[in-house]
Amino acid sequence: MMELKKASLAVLGRAKGEGAVSAEAWVRRRTTVRCHSDGAGVKHSDSLDASIRFRLSDGRVGSHVGRVLGLESVSKLVDEALKGAKAPAQPDEDLPRLDIPSIGLGVFDRRRAHLTDEDRMDVVQSMDVNCGRGHG
User: Fold this and answer.
1) Euclidean distance between CA atoms 46 and 115, whole angstroms
2) Strands of 2-136, DSSP E
3) How many helical (H) and strand (E) elements, i.e. helices and strands, does the chain have?
4) Nearest-CA neighbor of 61 among 79, 88, 90, 80?
């Protein structure tokens, strides 16, 4: 998996190579924890997601969100943004900033560092028991 800085530079570099006069990218690492109540346990996986928004020299604005697996997916991300690029309602308006949440579940949740896989499995198993009772 690409590191965050390398992925960000690749996305911005590809946009610049396609004629972007201004660009903004947000690359984030997503950690997914899956708990299986059927005894399969807890599985962790990481991925990189990226958002890009840019203005081309002809005034069109493009944006796209996608998963970053490597350089090929960076090209695909920018290509998709180019396909959807269109002229803004006001030609001289500033390019809006990406909507980056400043707080949310996970990263800023104070409990995150204290949750163990056993805690997660307890929740999943209690949900199975409680949901099963309601439908019996």
Assistant:
1) 17
2) 20-36, 41-56, 61-68
3) 3, 3
4) 88
Percent of the chain with pLDDT over 70: 68
20-36 sheet: strands from edge to edge: 20-36, 41-56, 61-68
Element (H, E) at 62: strand 61-68
Q: Would you report the helix, strand and coil content of the chain in percent, each value rounded to 5?
A: 35, 30, 35
At 51-93, the pLDDT tens digits run 999 989 888 999 999 988 888 888 899 999 999 998 876 666 6
Q: Tell whether pTM > 0.70.
A: no
Q: Which residues contact residue 26 at a Cβ distance below 8 angstroms, ignoring those fewer than 6 apart?
A: 50, 51, 52, 98, 100
Return the structure tokens found at 30.
């997503």
Amino acid at position 57, single letter: S
Tokens, residue 83: 């396909």
Token pair recorded at residue 106: 């996970």
Yes or no: say if 37 and 128 are a contact pair by the CB < 8 Å rule.
yes
